[in-house]
Request: fold
Amino acid sequence: MIRVNENYKKLKSSYLFADIAGKVATFQKENPETDIIRLGIGDVTRALPSACVRAFHAGVDEMADDKSFRGYGPEQGYDFLREAIAQKDFQARGAEVSADEIFVSDGAKCDTGNFQELFAEDVIVAIPDPVYPVYLDTNIMAGRTGEFNDGRYDGIVYMECTRENNFLPSFPDGPCDLIYLCFPNNPTGTTITKAELAKWVGYARENKALILFDAAYEAFIRDDSLPRSIYEIEGAREVAVEFRSFSKTAGFTGTRCAYTVVPKECMIFDKDGEKISLHGLWNRRHSTKFNGVSYPVQRAAEAVYSEEGAIQTRALVSYYLKNADLIRNTMDTMGFDFVGGDNSPYIWVDGNGRDSWEFFDMLLTKTGVVCTPGAGFGKCGRNYIRISAFNSRENVEAAMERIKGALG
Ligand code: PLP
Reply:
């Protein structure tokens, strides 16, 4: 008898964005004349930078000729891309990362979701609340949680991010083995200083723990004093893995390219306390279960690091940051308390005691603007909404005018 992985039965039945889509569809059916503006799901809306498109085309042309055609590539990514990443994203900023520590993949979602496979079923996992749901759900699937009680899974250490702690994850009371951090943060849009991040590196070193650092929104950091990589912190190479993505940096959500950094110094332990190289383990896992990102896509990603590509991707991110600024100004004018949106595409708005789904419904029905209810990201989000800056300037301006008109 073929039996189910019982852990899957513990997952919450419906996915946040499916619930939102259902509500929006119902509203649209009842109000066909309303032009809905979506500031909910974190997907980019603008075209790929032209430097990337040109490189993408050239890559396809190479595939069209027997002489330059390529079949399977290296599972870890082509050297041309790994070297550009190591040099431009890390070494140029004083962070020590070499090309062979980079694993190119088709998404930070898969990588942040898959990485937990390398660890024992009984490691203690610490997850921020609110959180990008992938970290939690993949640990549920792997059997690291008990039952769901009062909005929380038994067995998980929740690190609360609240107004009181400036939305920085609270340190776990006891020792933890696997710690998920995400900065700039989804959903709160907050960032972390070098001094605060150094405390986490210190905690991981003291507790022989590992940090999974998700830097998918690194390109939105404009404050030069903030760390763009955890490897800017001394001692992080022994205790941290970093995830990056071209999705939000260069509009690759539909093109798919990302990468994970696993430093060679990073060690984990077997049941006898013997050290095992995490780099070796991830290499084994990645090359067994993954067959590489397509060649033209890797060429398109490489173009992000060209002179022209760097200017274009910065302009792309600046466009969304300007949207974020408009949203921040509106929230400010209307007296809402919020964080994020300055080095991040997300603005986390306090509903002032209002339930997040109620806030979502009110915005939708009064203005036709779609946001994301904070409850979908965890218990600490139940009185917040997330507004995303990923849309056209015209739509963001129109959405803000509607909000001012209806709620002002
Ligand atoms: N990590 C975070 C924090 C995200 O918000 C997202 C996407 O929204 C991802 C990872 C996924 O990135 P990718 O498109 O590379 O799979």
Summary: The first helix runs from residue 16 to 30. The pocket of pyridoxal-5'-phosphate is lined by residues 42, 107-109, 112, 132, 182, 186, 214, 216, 245, 247, 253, 258 (CB under 6 Å). The CA atoms of residues 170 and 327 lie 28 Å apart. The mean pLDDT is 96.
